[in-house]
Amino acid sequence: MFDRKKLQDKAERLVHHQVKANVTYMVAHLNEDEQEYIRHERWKVFRVENQDEYGIDSDEMHEAFMEHCIPEWWIVSDSLGRMLAHQGHVAFPYGIDYLWGRPTSGQAIYMDRSIQEIAESLS
Question: pTM for this structure?
Answer without folding.
Answer: 0.85
